[in-house]
Amino acid sequence: MLDADYPELPDLAEVRVIRKQLGWTQRELAKATRLSQSFVNKIERNEADPGYRTAKGIFQVLQQALTKKKRHGVSKTAQDIMTMNVEYVNSNQTVEEARKLIIKNDFSQLPVIDNGIVKGSITDRLLVRLGESGRVSRIREIMEKRFPVVDPDTKLETLRHLLDEYHAVLVDKGNKDYGIVTKHDLLKAMK
Question: Where are the domains of the chain?
Answer without folding.
Answer: 13-72, 78-189
